[in-house]
Amino acid sequence: MDINSIRSQFPILSKKINGKQLVYLDSSNSSQKPLNVLNSLDYFYKNEFSNIGRSIHSLAVNATNKFEETRISVKNFINANSKEEIIFTKNATESINLIATTFGQMSIKKGDEILITELEHHSNYVPWHYLRETRGAIIKFAPINDDGDIIIEKFKELITSKTKIIAVTHLSNVTGTIVPIKEIVEIARKKNIPVLVDGCQSAPHIKIDVKDLDCDFYAISCHKVYGPTGVGILYAKKKWLEKLPPYNGGGGMISEVNKNQITYAPLPEKYEAGTMPTAEVVAFNESIKFMQSIGIDNIIKHENELTNYTLEKLKKINSVNIVGNPRNKAGVISFTIKGIHPHDISTIVDEEGVAIRAGHHCCQILHKRLNLNATARASIGVYNTKEDIDVLCDAIKNCRKIFELK
Amino acid sequence: MDLKQLYQDIILEHGKSPRNFGICNEYTHEAKGHNPLCGDQVEVYLKLNKESKVENLTFKGSGCAISIASTSIMTELVKGKSIEKAKKLVVDFLNMIKNGTIIKSDELDEDQKTKMMSLSGVKQYPMRVKCATLAWHTLTSAMEGNKEKVNTEVLD
Ligand SMILES: Cc1ncc(COP(=O)(O)O)c(C=O)c1O
To answer: Residue B62 domain-assigned?
Structure first.
């Protein structure tokens, strides 16, 4: 893997921030975009733009074909059975809301249980909370241990005859925990409970094979996978998409409309109401190509090395505490420094051009569980290097100096 | 931008050893505030006497150096003032943080003005303004007897 050639594909990485070379360590928040993606957006708007699926002129036909090509690439990228199982949304949040709403409408009654975990992002909690408010559902939280791993035995115990759906993250955006989804799905299968996986953080970092995982639903945000903002993916097994009611209503998702009756479009259009982020979906095909050109195994290897390097270097700095110590961890590294609040850390390292995130990272349940108000988080992308980590660590030492920590 | 402007010694010192920390006896007013973006929390306890003077002002909470120092300095400056003057100080402070207005208040001596001005560097860091203003908004809420938790996202 040629890191310099990868880096050269990201124009933003050569920018200066506060007079210093940008060190971007906030990819869990959103990744930067390579040139082929940027060029695709530009080219599409300049040469090929048209709305899709409606007009029959040449531009529209070509745009529609391009849009559908991305669907096929996504299907192959996550190894789905058919392209009908790939729905384009706005982001992973919308993907999860889509399932929570439609599944809730179809299957959740008062007293039914929804099982999630203490690791979840608010995006995989609040949509289920709505069902608690509107339908009287009960939400149960599978506990984690101090390492940040889900306690599988406790997880099993929380499943009852009333559990209607399980929703769990594939990779924690705070501790970097890689959750054993296959094991969880196997447990759920025995009780016939569908499983939704929040794949927001996993999609850029690990291999995704929905057939192998055998999960029912999988949610992705393309902006975290070297793609444009405004596009998300919902994978759902066909049997669910056929059975569940539609979500947004409007143009594009109907078949026939009468004053007293409406029939809906076949899959996947049934779930794609209104004008879609056409150029962005088309450009996301380039994100997948970008990752494939490097090779997902190479990405994993590079990021694992860098994760280990980061952990070792951070642990050597006095009073740095790494949050969680999961069995399997990806390049999401949250930490605290005794005596310095994460916001102060972030402001000070920003002065050195280092972009990290500070706060609760949309995981207040997890922070409360770990007795933390906030953490600082460095998250890795394929373009990061050991030098980036060295700059981060020097900047952290500067925090300690400013705060006069010994 | 200059970090030294933001992290002046006085701020670091108050951040590390905040004054008037805790819940004061016989407080007459209290309010809670939070900054949902970063999770900072503050509770302000205010004791007004019969002449509507701030007899005591303490706080509890967690947050960054800027927010703790701002709260600590606030309790020092406001203690002993009448409620009208306290309200004026809040306005002066917010004007300084948001518009860079110099503190001219007759209510403060030079030392106190310097203390208040030590927080003015925050203006250069827009993402940190809320850290500094949280306590002051929460004090207003306490003085006005508002029951709802102060939310910096709604206010600033
Ligand atoms: C684990 C996880 N789930 C869900 C989301 C929500 O993603 P988006 O805001 O793109 O919908 C994020 C993004 O921060 C995340 O990290």
So the answer is: yes
Q: A–B: how many Cβ contacts below 8 A?
A: 50
Q: What is the pLDDT of residues A363-381, one digit of tens each?
A: 999 999 999 989 999 999 9
The DSSP secondary structure of A289-340, one letter per residue, reads HHHHHH-HHHHHHHHHHHHHHHHHHHHHSTTEEES---SSB-SEEEEEETTB
- Count of structural domains within chain B: 1
**Which CATH architecture describes the domain A3-26+295-402?**
Alpha-Beta Complex (3.90)
What ranges do the domains of chain A cover? 3-26+295-402, 38-292
Question: Residue B85 is part of a domain; what is its CATH number?
Answer: 3.90.1010.10
Q: What is the ipTM of this complex?
A: 0.86
Residue A195 forms beta bridges with which residues?
A: A166
Is CATH 3.40.640.10 the classification given to domain A38-292? yes
* SS3 assignment for A263-299: EECCCCHHHCCCCCCHHHHHHHHHHHHHHHHHCHHHH
Alpha-carbon distance B67 to nearest alpha carbon in chain A (angstroms): 10
Closest residue in A to B131 (Cα) is A343
pLDDT tens, B77-134? 999 999 999 999 999 999 999 888 888 878 888 899 999 999 999 998 988 999 999 9
Residue A223 CA, closest ligand 1 atom number: 10
